[in-house]
Design goal:
Low-confidence stretches: none
Helix content: 10-25%
Mean pLDDT: 84
Largest sheet: 3 strands, mixed
Strand order of the largest sheet: 2-5-4
Number of helices: 4
Distance between the termini: 23 Å
Number of strands: 7
Number of domains: 1
Radius of gyration: 18 Å
Strand content: 5-15%
Structural class: alpha/beta
Order of helices and strands: HEHEEEEHHEE
Length: 203
């Protein structure tokens, strides 16, 4: 995780680790280990409300999150702020969610959670300066990008790419062209110039 954020000179340290239980009730040791979707993830809201005003970012590791989500960031200006991370995920998911705490946004190349049947997708255009103006270096050799690299494949390299992908690890210098969470096409905050908080902390 720290290796990824070295790209933008940010380092994370662990302050403390502690187990938590719902209502501190030893008779229910599995409470909050499995987070259900019910009532808009109310269990996650309850769990994340146990720690606040810590001066840092609270990360809650659970056994399972119902559905396809493996981690999410919740950042209202309230005690319920925090990250929830499912067991077994890799550092890319944690790094992605930490990006949200610093003001970065999801970027997509497809407009549907169903990757096999997207409503729309970026075309097969190659990367070009107009779509990544702050990161362009494809002039005379040695160029940074392969001449056959497509924009929709480049997005999968970004740590803020919204779907799971083993190759994502890059933080761009500035905004990059793609689809946002609402599946609106445009420039998305995915990099150094877009960091709203270099020392992120929850309420």
């Amino acid at each position: 995780m720290s290796e990824i954020y070295k790209q933008v000179a940010i380092e994370f340290t662990v302050h403390s680790i502690e187990p938590i239980r719902k209502y501190n009730d030893p008779s229910n040791p599995d409470d909050w280990l499995d987070i259900a979707k019910a009532k808009d993830f109310i269990e996650a809201d309850e769990m994340m409300s146990t720690h606040y005003n810590t001066g840092g970012v609270e990360i809650y590791f659970v056994r399972e999150i119902e559905g396809t989500t493996t981690g999410f960031n919740y950042s209202p200006n309230s005690r319920a702020a925090g990250l929830v991370i499912e067991a077994g995920i890799n550092s890319r998911t944690i790094s992605h969610e930490l990006g949200h705490t610093s003001g970065l946004k999801d970027i997509y190349e497809k407009t549907s959670d169903d990757l096999d049947n997207p409503i729309a997708t970026l075309d097969d255009s190659l990367v070009k300066e107009q779509w990544l103006p702050y990161d362009w270096n494809n002039g005379p050799p040695p160029a940074y990008y392969k001449i056959d690299l497509k924009q929709k494949e480049l997005l999968k390299r970004l740590i803020m790419y919204g779907y799971t992908d083993e190759q994502k690890s890059d933080l761009s210098f500035g905004k990059v062209y793609g689809w946002n969470t609402s599946y609106v096409e445009g420039f998305i905050k995915t990099g150094l110039l877009d960091l709203g908080k270099r020392e992120p902390h929850h309420w």
